[in-house]
Amino acid sequence: MLRMLAIGVLVISVVLLSVIVFRKKLGFGWLSLFGVHLVLAALAIYVVNFSGLITQVHIPLNPATIGAVTVLGLPGVVMLIGLRIILF
Question: Transmembrane ranges (predicted)?
Answer without folding.
Answer: 6-23, 30-54, 66-87
